[in-house]
Write a structure and sequence with these properties.
With about 270 residues, the chain is of the alpha/beta class. It has one domain: 3-Layer(aba) Sandwich (Rossmann fold), CATH 3.40.50. It has nine helices and eight strands. Helix 1 packs across helix 4. The N terminus and C terminus are likely disordered.
Length: about 270
């Protein structure tokens, strides 16, 4: 699906052609590095070496789907101004697994591009994104995704220079730079942005200039607002986590699904 028409064995890249073997090696390397990074995250959990326990803890996290302000295209301009976080349908209290995050559901015609996950401090939002990434890196789940790029707002805050979106990805995930992969629109990509409540960037959705070229440099703030609005890489999927108080920094019309981490379903697990 990410191949260039008429050239079944090549994928187009900014530095000539990127061979599938190079892409596969890049994915392997990225997965290996993410595994190394996130496996050690679980050292604080008793018997962290036991993967079964990790999965048990993980599946006990109770995620519910809230509503989202869906915009009617006919009255889009007026609605964008008045869109709010009031659910457009009653909150469902089904337990969601992260593999369901980017799927169409009963009340949704198409899969959401951007998922916003809310939860109070320490409830397990970061844990959730790390486990999602680890499952992808270990080939356990989410194998329709070709690249997963986990970012934290804490690290994005300190970037003062201008970046293009391509260079930003290369900066944090050097495996993609080494492979010469620049055409991320040709892949199924998930960007994870953890900790919106820690974001110190203005995220000025109304006044930031529009940007559609992934190779054009801008401030990280401008890159993020354009990525979230879908001006940059509209085919990418985004997952943003936040404490509830900061959720309204993202305009409702930019969010396809809102979920909330409610913590552990079994009170004993909290011990």
């Amino acid at each position: 699906k990410h191949l260039v028409s008429g050239e079944p064995n090549l994928v187009e890249g900014d530095r000539g052609q990127v061979h599938p073997e190079i892409i596969a090696n890049c994915q392997r390397e990225l997965k290996s590095n993410l595994m190394e990074k996130f496996q050690c995250v679980f050292e604080g959990i008793p018997k962290a070496g036991n993967p079964t326990l990790l999965n048990e803890i993980y599946t006990e996290l109770y995620i519910t789907e809230g509503g989202t302000a869906e915009v009617n295209e006919e009255h889009e301009v007026r609605q964008i101004e008045t869109a709010s976080w009031k659910p457009d349908r009653p909150e469902t209290t089904i337990r969601l697994q992260p593999e369901d995050l980017f799927k169409a559901s009963a009340g949704r015609k198409k899969p959401p591009r951007t998922v916003l996950t809310k939860g109070v401090a320490g409830i397990g939002k970061t844990f959730l994104t790390q486990k999602f990434t680890l499952d992808w890196a270990e080939d356990k789940d989410h194998q329709d995704i070709e690249f997963t790029f986990p970012f934290t707002f804490k690290k994005l805050n300190v970037l003062r220079e201008k970046f293009s979106l391509v260079r930003l990805v290369h900066h944090f995930f050097s495996e993609t730079k080494a492979a010469g992969i620049c055409r991320f629109e040709m892949f199924q990509v998930v960007f994870i942005f953890d900790g919106l409540d820690e974001c110190q960037l203005p995220l000025d959705f109304h006044n930031n200039e529009d940007l559609t070229d992934v190779t054009e440099s801008a401030s990280v703030d401008v890159l993020l607002t354009n990525l979230i609005k879908g001006n940059l890489l509209p085919t990418a999927r985004l997952w943003i986590t936040t404490r509830p108080a900061a959720a309204n920094q993202i305009p409702a019309e930019c969010v396809g699904m809102v979920t909330e981490v409610r913590g552990f379903t079994d009170p004993q697990k909290e011990e």
